[in-house]
Amino acid sequence: MKIILLGPPGAGKGTQAKFISEEYSIPHISTGDIFRKNISDKTPLGIEAKEYLDKGQLVPDEVTINIVKDRLSEDDCESGFLLDGFPRTVYQAEALDSFLNANDNKIDMVLLIDVPRELIFDRMTGRRICPSCGASYHVKFNPPKLKDKCDICNNDIIQRKDDTESTVKDRLDVYEKQTEPLINYYKEQGVISAIEGSGEINQVFQRAKNALGAICK
Ligand code: ADP
Ligand code: AMP
């Protein structure tokens, strides 16, 4: 299964991706996680990406596309993958399509997580992440079992630098201008399936499974 998770920042893509990737045994590829790992390792990519992430802007298309192509060329992606946070522009979507076409492949489903705008702000400012495995928590809606510790790797969880009030606003603007046009792009391809992202995390996962059932073999 080749799946894209689409939706505004804070929709719950990363949260659902962990469950979906486990359920269907496909790798979860989050470009945001890849950039954050490079920033924490201070690699040349991390140094370049940091200025964009800190401002809530998109990392340039060519840089991002090359990273994703490299990752999708790895063996574990042969039978499927779950993209989270990519593509984010029509240019990225076109590059992904050409890359997959060249390998006789295509996206099976774009799962759009729809969330009312008024929920997003609280979700993002209360988000905490594990810098090691990328797991996403929320101080109120999804706290870890042990205070401030990742359930999976027991690392200290942290607040993302770009989850502050002013950056969240900028990121929502970027989403509306640059990423939302992808909804029509994938509608035209007939591969989009929308689910409601409000409600309990597990409820959203059930909706995701129902939608993905249509492409499960
Ligand atoms: P995205 O990857 O789309 O930016 P996340 O999965 O990181 O979003 O979720 C954003 C925040 O909202 C996190 O703090 C997460 O724990 C929380 N969250 C995710 N899904 C739900 C939900 N269904 N209800 C309440 N909070 C949620
Ligand atoms: P995310 O973890 O998906 O919220 O992404 C965090 C940040 O990483 C974004 O605000 C961008 O700065 C950068 N980023 C992630 N994915 C992409 C992408 N596909 N294109 C450009 N920038 C991206």
Strand content: 5-15%
Strand order of the largest sheet: 2-3-1-4-7
The CATH top-level class label of the domain at 2-26 and 79-116 and 179-215: Alpha Beta
Can you identify the CATH superfamily of the domain at 2-26 and 79-116 and 179-215? Answer: P-loop containing nucleotide triphosphate hydrolases
Q: Give helix % range.
A: 40-55%
Question: What is the mean predicted local confidence, pLDDT?
Answer: 95
Radius of gyration: 16 Å
Q: How many DSSP helices?
A: 9
Would you give the CATH topology of the domain at 2-26 and 79-116 and 179-215? Rossmann fold
* Helix/strand class: alpha/beta
Largest sheet: 5 strands, parallel
CATH architecture descriptor name of the domain at 2-26 and 79-116 and 179-215: 3-Layer(aba) Sandwich
The ordered string of helix (H) and strand (E) elements is: EHEHHHEHEHEEHHEH
**N-to-C CA distance:** 9 Å
What does this structure look like?
- The N and C termini lie close together (9 Å).
- This protein is an alpha/beta fold.
- Helix 2 crosses helix 3.
- It has nine helices and seven strands; from the N terminus they run E-H-E-H-H-H-E-H-E-H-E-E-H-H-E-H.
- The strands form two sheets. It has a five-stranded parallel β-sheet with strand order 2-3-1-4-7, sandwiched between helices.
- The model has no long low-confidence stretch (mean pLDDT 95).
- Helix content is 48%, strand content 13%.
- The chain has a domain of 100 residues: Rossmann fold (3-Layer(aba) Sandwich).
- Bound molecules: adenosine-5'-diphosphate (ADP) and adenosine monophosphate (AMP).
- The site of adenosine monophosphate has 18 residues, from helix 2 and helix 3.
